[in-house]
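Fold it.
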Amino acid sequence: MTPIAAEAQQAGGLFGGNSMWVMILIYAVIIGGIYFFLIRPNSKKKKEEAQMRNSLEIGDEITTIGGIMGRVVAIKDDEDAIIIETGSDRVKMKFKKWCISTVDTVKNPAETAPVEKKSLTSFFKKKKQESESEK
């Protein structure tokens, strides 16, 4: 064995005695990255879809995941289903709520208050507007 290899082995390897902690740190970073790039966005999307499906009202125009477009005429909460009416021939079909892809009805902006995103730049813009209005 060469003297350099003997010194490295004696010192505890390339990272010293902390090679186990380095490996744990690497695994923690990988698991954290998977969570923030794969799991978290997917769960946020599912929550938004569930909220959209639960906020359905009679008269809303919807599109199903199969591409069927229609207007909601009844909501059956006990069965977790909706009844839609399609086309000019007024065919009524019953669907489960999970099959709703999009709600195409545009809500009145007065009914839904705009959600202000909080960020550092919006904070400074608001402060600037307040100081200008005081002058």
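The radius of gyration is 29 Å.
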